[in-house]
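During data preparation, a discrete fold description was generated, as reproduced here:
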Amino acid sequence: MANQITGKIEKIGAVQVLHSKDGSKTFQKREIVLDATRYDPYTGERGFENYPSFEFGGEKCAELDKFKPGQVVTVSFDVFGMKYEDKTTHETKYFTKVRGYRIESRQVYTPSEQPGIPSQQEPSAPPASSLQEKKTTGSYVPFPPPVDKNGIPLDKTDDLPF
């Protein structure tokens, strides 16, 4: 079963070269960290922070050269766990690694990419009167909706008491 996660690249680490115990073999690994923080779909507020890191190994390290921080990507990964015996306490311990095996760039939806709608520059936080005009014309309304300094949506068309 494939595990995937989508997020914005926070950091791409440098290539690390590891040597085998006897020194006869080398292995490369590289780490990438995503910002996969979730947002409330109704208010647009940040939920809990989520910064998973993924380890790419071998020839997969070169795939990370195609990407840069700030890009939105989908990482396919596998969870890999091992157990070992602590030499001092003789206790069995476990550790888990998350290994990436594929990374793909994601297209970020913008209103100008929708077919049939002419491209126009949208302000980042339009005034409330502008929102009313957009509703009547059927234009794209940005999500999350604009809010005032207290976090209350500027568009007050709902009549819900809460």
